[in-house]
Amino acid sequence: MLPYGRQSIDAADVEAVVAALGSDWLTTGPRVARFEADIEAVAGAPAVTVTNGTTALHAAYAAAGVGRGDEVITTPMTFVATASGAAMLGAEVIFADIEEDTANLDPAAVDAVVTTRTKVITAVDYAGVPADYDRLRKITDSAGAILVGDAAHSIGSTYRGRPVGTLADLTTFSFFPTKNLTTGEGGAVVSTRPELIERLRDFRTVGSVRDPERLRRTDEGGWYYEVQEFGLNYRLPDVLCALGSAQLRRLGDFKARRARLTARYDELLADVPGLRLPARRPDVDPIRHLYPVRVLDGRRREVYDRLRAAGIGVQVNYIPVYWHPVFEDLGYRRGMCPVAEAFYAEELSLPLFYDLSDSDQDRVVDTLRGILGS
């Protein structure tokens, strides 16, 4: 089965991991700080590594102070963790609809649902295309809220010349194998605000504080630490950080290859009837995580089934979050975000990853043409 996404591991990646395994530090060692510095060089803001993209979102919401009585506005066109991380802290999740062309959070829809209880607005860079952060920033500033960017798809992308990582107050990354680079499992949160970075570091280390200037009691020995707020063990070990640093050195190549494959899809599928290709935005330079087409005329299920039967592992990204029973049981109902639901009914992600060969891509295109032409 040709997958829709897959990691790319080379000899340098293996060498980095083997070196970490032979060192004195398997976790909480120097490779963690090194990987965080490498992320900062790409993202443009200090980084805190965590165990995966889901815990990155949970840590970001905790650092933002999300709790009971707060509202968090986000998109339904995302993986459930974008919403569940806030809900688990006691917040009410408010879903705002998406832009029809990009599937990103629609600032106008956000503006319509902001209240005095709005604590956080969370955008998602769908398929690697950054959201409209300048418009969202105006809304969050006016509301006194915190802007979060779920950039699980978009490390390496830029928005109006600025790197993802500098656009929101808190930006989360995922390093799952299907993402633009991988640590196996892993994630990170970046922020340009030092007080949020401090809260992130505390939270991902079970809330423990060792800085003498922050301790409430200063008359104990060198072993002493304090837990001043609850946190969790979300530490990413040195072994995986070593892989992450090695992968980041290839990010430019990853981006260039994904751009070439995207351009080939655009050219080869341009005249296929019943198919709508992804939109382009002149103000962004994305690293394409997904190639999401829209299958028209109610044929998405048929096309999905026939491609999978032909050994082509297409995917659907995503089921609207509030359709999941965990949200239905909280009172959320279908029809809340009609643009997102219409997008979901047609969306299909074609295979896109660094090692996808031209011949495999041609097979995807030829098979898709044959199905839609029949």
UniProtKB/TrEMBL annotation:
> Record's SUPFAM superfamilies?
PLP-dependent transferases
Q: Name one GO molecular function term.
A: transaminase activity
Q: Which domain of life is it from?
A: Bacteria
**Which Pfam families does the protein's record reference?**
DegT_DnrJ_EryC1
Name any cofactors this protein relies on. pyridoxal 5'-phosphate
UniProt entry tagged with the keyword Transferase? yes
The protein's matches in CDD domains, at most eight in alphabetical order, are given as: AHBA_syn
Sorted alphabetically, which keywords does the UniProt record give? Aminotransferase, Pyridoxal phosphate, Transferase
Q: Does the keyword Protein transport apply?
A: no
PANTHER family noted in UniProt = DTDP-4-AMINO-4,6-DIDEOXYGALACTOSE TRANSAMINASE, TRANSAMINASE
The UniProt similarity line reads: Belongs to the DegT/DnrJ/EryC1 family.
Q: What is this protein called?
A: DegT/DnrJ/EryC1/StrS family aminotransferase
